[in-house]
Design goal:
With 104 residues, this protein is of the alpha+beta class. The chain is built from five helices and four strands. It has one domain (3-103): 60s Ribosomal Protein L30, Chain: A (2-Layer Sandwich). It has helices at residues 3-16, 24-33, 47-60, 70-76, 90-103, and strands at 20-22, 38-42, 64-67, 84-87. The protein has a four-stranded mixed β-sheet, sandwiched between helices. β2 (38-42), α3 (47-60) and β3 form a beta-alpha-beta unit. α1 runs antiparallel to α5 and α2 packs parallel to α3 (47-60).
């Protein structure tokens, strides 16, 4: 199983547990309110979207990762295309980050 598939599994688990916010407005609200434990940005999101969320996450000290594309991110969280998603569960966010550390 690839790391991308494992991350999709964790995102799906978080979505089923209602521990994911998706879409730019909801993710921005989650980050600024302190609910977000991890922000996921689709690799094919616009440069403006990437910059906006990377800067916001840096300011609010929320880990931020790039993941696959909008279609794959949407599928992982059970929605159509999504450019951004925020995991609001600490354990699942840490699990995704562990997968990325093993990859490196």
């Amino acid at each position: 199983m690839t790391s991308e598939e494992r991350i999709a599994g964790y995102l799906g688990l978080a979505a089923r547990g209602r521990r994911v916010e998706s879409g730019e407005f909801s993710v921005e609200k989650a980050v600024k309110s302190g609910k977000a434990c991890l922000t996921v940005i689709a690799g094919d999101a616009s440069d403006n979207t990437k910059k906006k969320f990377q800067n916001m996450c840096e300011y609010y000290r929320v880990p931020c990762i790039l993941y696959a594309d909008r279609e794959a991110l949407g599928a992982a969280v059970g929605k159509p295309f999504r450019a951004t998603a925020a995991v609001t569960d600490r354990g699942l966010a840490d699990a995704v980050l562990r997968v990325l550390q093993q990859k490196v």
